[in-house]
């Protein structure tokens, strides 16, 4: 890849649009110089951002590269044209950034708006590559053959990486190679092995702690407590699982024997308790029978004392039953009497109501007659007037149609008039052009004749031999054909004008006819002659005013007539309701009077029947009957109470007789002694049961602990084997094996790259140092066993044949070795990514630390590197380099941004 043209706008320190044409440097070394912070490295940043959307330092992305000096209207972008593989490509990329909006907010201030990023790739044929941003980025990586990280490693030797790589310790060089050759995956393998080893060791420790917990869970007798504590002390370092399992098995066997013995004793205690329970049940039942007999005898004595009271209650219940028969007839008699009284009251109320309504009905009849007369007079007066208004408004609607048509015709007339005026003007202008051209044409004919006149020869027009003022010839382009065309245009304009005039006359006639019709209708509606010629607008305004008044008069008249009719209807309706209600009340009064008569007869018949039944049931007076009356619920309750008393007395007597026969010749038992024996036996059973549960629980706990210990023993054996393998792998990969060189896996893999890089560097160094010395990777047998090793660098002198430390090199030798090592690293990276050719190299290095000879030697070396088609750019501000390198790209820093130019 070789850059051709780079354009940066509002990018980095460049506020305006700057363009760098790398075609001015055909080959060799060129210098990028300028003040510190002017934007020298930004040039490489621009190339990197255009290709990958990233900057070379990796600390800033595209969104941070907008220039702080750029005006709001200047767009930020990078445009790069480059060649690769014999083809020319162009990429245009702009980042996403914020800028001030052109609009203002309510306070008058500017708001911020986001400018979206974009990327465009133009192919060698000039067409735009189709695809979104991700697809374009993938295409660029495919074209270049390297990604952003690899490109920055190949095409850019950053400031300070020369001597830092040469003189670095093995640890520092490992960190550099980890980034350059991306060997971090091997470091992650080391770390993963170390972590797995730690996890496995942690699992072993967890297993040991679990074993101790399970031993602690074992429940043992007092004789084996000391043995358990000894096992726990041993397990603090490494548990003896075989001894632990044997101890657990012995405890289980002991638990089994004790549990069986306790279970047999429990069965004996339970059998004794069952016999006591049976004896206690028999004695308790007999004691309850003696107690029940005593209670029943006491209960019978209490019932006998209530016998007289119950006999009196029976007599009250008999009287209540006889009174109930009388009450059935008495209720019918009282209901009929109350109904007659209610009817008489209703008759009185109806008569009073009819008397009150009579006066109100007469007033409503008089009011209806008055409103009926008023409505008739109002109809005679208003109906003819309203009818005439309706007809007039209907005619006005027709007039409105004519007014609208007249307005349309007036617009059409104005348009026709305007069209006619334009056609007339066009005709006059065309006629004027024709006359002017015609006169010029005639004058031209005279000039043609004058061109052939000679002195002493007669004029063909006037015959004169002398020609003192012959006509001048006119334009050669003027011809009779041109004049004829102009005359045709004049005739055409005249015809157009005549056509427009006729159309205008037709529009005028139609408009005047419509106006005549409107005036005739207006005269008919207003019932007066037209006294003056009114315009269409005046007639329209007049009729709009008339229409408003007419419609208002019509609405008011109809509303007044409607209100009067509604009021008459309301009064008539009220009168009809009054009359209907009065008739209904009269009918009710007749019905009530008839029912009063019927109820009076029924009342007398039921009174006679009531008195007869009362005497039959032995109640001489009404007061005696009412006193004996009792509510049905009360009567039922008292009857049930008597029946229950008699039943209880009978049942108690029978039960006493039965109990006396059962307990004959038997004595009451001593329950207290039996209960005492039963309580002692239950307590003994509870103790045995608790001991049995404790033994069962201990056996279950020990069985679970034993099973868990067996499982933990298997797991520990597997973990121990896995830990031995992982520990060996981890120590080997991390270089921590005792008695060996401290080289880890990542350093070992980097050592392969390092050796390859040294071979490539020695090819460059052989030319630079004239075969005086070479770089050499320190051999494995010479590596130190202390600290990280494997990437140590030595110098082999071809003159003395001895190996010495790289730090013994002089300043010039160090520079040559460092530069060769950096170029060797670039060669290795290029080979690592395949057949990729990056024809441009940027070196950002401080040459100020070199003396004059070393600097000249460095320039010659770099010029030798660029002897082919390779382009080498040195980013530096050293003054002496400006004299040694002819081709310079000068970056100038200003208050409003930086600028560049070739010198």
Automatic annotation (TrEMBL):
Residue span(s) of domain Rad50/SbcC-type AAA: 6-304
GO biological process, one term: double-strand break repair
Keywords tagged on the record: Coiled coil
Coiled-coil parts of chain: 245-409, 475-510, 575-729
A Gene Ontology molecular function term of the record: ATP hydrolysis activity
Superkingdom, taxonomy of origin: Bacteria
Family of this protein: Belongs to the SMC family. SbcC subfamily.
Record protein name field: Nuclease SbcCD subunit C
Organism of origin: Oliverpabstia intestinalis
């Amino acid at each position: 890849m070789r850059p051709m043209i780079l354009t940066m706008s509002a990018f980095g320190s460049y506020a305006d649009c700057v363009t760098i044409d790398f075609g001015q440097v055909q080959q060799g070394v060129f210098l990028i110089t300028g003040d510190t912070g002017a934007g020298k490295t930004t040039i490489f940043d621009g190339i990197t951002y255009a290709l990958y959307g990233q900057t070379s330092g990796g600390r800033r992305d595209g969104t941070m590269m907008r220039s702080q000096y750029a005006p709001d209207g200047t767009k930020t972008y990078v445009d790069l044209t480059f060649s690769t593989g014999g083809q020319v490509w162009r990429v245009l990329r702009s980042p996403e950034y914020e800028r001030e909006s052109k609009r203002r907010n309510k306070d008058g201030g500017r708001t911020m708006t986001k400018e979206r990023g974009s990327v465009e790739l133009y192919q060698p044929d000039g067409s735009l590559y189709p695809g979104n941003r991700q697809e374009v980025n993938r295409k660029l990586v495919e074209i270049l053959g390297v990604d952003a990280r690899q490109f920055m490693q190949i095409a850019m030797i950053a400031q300070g990486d020369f001597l830092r790589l040469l003189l670095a310790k093995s640890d520092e060089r490992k960190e550099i190679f980890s980034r350059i050759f991306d060997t971090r995956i091997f470091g992650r393998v080391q770390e993963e092995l170390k972590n797995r080893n730690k996890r496995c060791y942690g699992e072993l420790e967890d297993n040991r702690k679990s074993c101790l917990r399970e031993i602690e869970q074992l429940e043992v007798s007092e004789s084996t407590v000391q043995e358990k504590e000894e096992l726990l002390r041993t397990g603090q370092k490494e548990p003896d699982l075989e001894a632990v399992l044997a101890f657990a098995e012995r405890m289980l066997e002991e638990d089994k024997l004790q549990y069986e013995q306790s279970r047999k004793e429990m069965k004996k205690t339970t059998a004794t308790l069952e016999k006591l329970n049976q004896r206690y049940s028999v004695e308790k039942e007999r004691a309850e029978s003696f107690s029940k007999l005593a209670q029943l005898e006491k209960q019978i004595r209490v019932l006998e004392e209530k016998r007289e009271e119950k006999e009196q209650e029976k007599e009250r219940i008999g009287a209540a039953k006889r009174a109930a028969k009388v009450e059935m007839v008495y209720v019918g008699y009282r209901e009929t009497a109350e109904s007659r009284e209610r009817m008489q009251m209703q008759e009185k109320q109806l008569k009073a109501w009819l008397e009150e309504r009579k006066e109100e009905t007469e007033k409503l009849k008089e009011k209806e007659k008055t409103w009926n007369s008023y409505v008739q007079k109002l109809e005679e007066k208003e109906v003819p007037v309203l009818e005439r208004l309706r007809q007039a408004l209907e005619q006005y609607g027709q007039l409105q149609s004519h007014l609208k048509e007249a307005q349309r015709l007036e617009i059409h007339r104005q348009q026709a008039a305007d069209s006619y005026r334009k056609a007339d003007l066009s005709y006059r202008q065309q006629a004027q052009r024709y006359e002017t051209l015609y006169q010029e044409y005639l004058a031209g004919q005279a000039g043609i004749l004058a061109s052939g006149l000679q002195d002493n020869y007669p004029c063909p027009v006037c015959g004169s031999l002398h020609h003192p003022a012959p006509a001048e010839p006119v334009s050669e382009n003027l011809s009779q054909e041109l004049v004829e065309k102009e005359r045709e245009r004049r005739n055409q304009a005249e015809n157009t004008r005549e056509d427009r005039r006729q159309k205008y006359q037709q529009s005028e006639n139609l408009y005047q006819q419509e106006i005549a019709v409107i005036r005739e209708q207006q005269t008919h509606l207003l019932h007066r002659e037209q006294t003056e010629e009114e315009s269409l607008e005046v007639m329209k305004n007049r009729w709009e005013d008339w229409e408003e008044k007419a419609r208002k008069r019509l609405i008011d008249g109809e509303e007044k007539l409607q209100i009067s009719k509604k009021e008459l209807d309301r009064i008539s309706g009220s009168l009809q309701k009054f009359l209907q209600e009065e008739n209904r009340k009269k009918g009710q009064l007749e019905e009530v009077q008839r029912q009063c008569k019927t109820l009076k007869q029924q009342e007398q018949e039921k009174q006679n029947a009531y008195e007869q039944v009362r005497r039959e049931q032995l109640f001489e007076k009404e007061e005696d009957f009412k006193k004996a009356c009792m509510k049905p619920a009360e009567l039922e309750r008292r009857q049930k109470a008597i029946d229950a008393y008699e039943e209880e007395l009978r049942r108690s007597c029978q039960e006493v007789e039965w109990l006396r026969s059962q307990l004959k010749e038997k004595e009451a038992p001593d329950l207290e002694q039996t209960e005492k024996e039963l309580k002692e036996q239950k307590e003994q059973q509870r103790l045995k049961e608790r001991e049995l549960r404790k033994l069962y629980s201990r056996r279950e706990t020990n069985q679970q602990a034993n099973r868990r210990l067996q499982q933990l023993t298997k797991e520990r054996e597997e973990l121990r084997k896995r830990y031995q393998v992982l520990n060996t792998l981890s120590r080997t990969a991390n270089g921590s094996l005792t008695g060996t060189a401290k080289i880890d896996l990542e350093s070992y893999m980097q050592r392969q790259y390092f050796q390859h890089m040294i071979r490539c560097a020695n090819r460059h160094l052989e030319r630079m140092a004239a075969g005086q010395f070479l770089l050499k990777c320190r051999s494995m047998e010479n590596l130190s066993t202390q600290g990280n090793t494997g990437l140590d660098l030595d110098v082999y002198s071809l003159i003395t044949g001895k190996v010495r430390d790289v730090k013994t090199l002089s300043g010039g030798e160090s520079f040559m070795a460092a530069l060769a090592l950096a170029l060797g690293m670039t060669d290795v990276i290029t080979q690592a990514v395949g057949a990729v050719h990056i024809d441009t190299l940027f070196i950002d290095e401080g040459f100020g630390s070199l003396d004059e000879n070393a600097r000249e030697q460095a320039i010659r070396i770099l010029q030798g590197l660029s002897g082919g088609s390779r382009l080498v750019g040195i980013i530096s501000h050293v003054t002496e380099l400006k004299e040694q390198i002819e081709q310079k790209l000068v970056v100038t820093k200003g208050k409003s941004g930086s600028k560049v130019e070739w010198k």
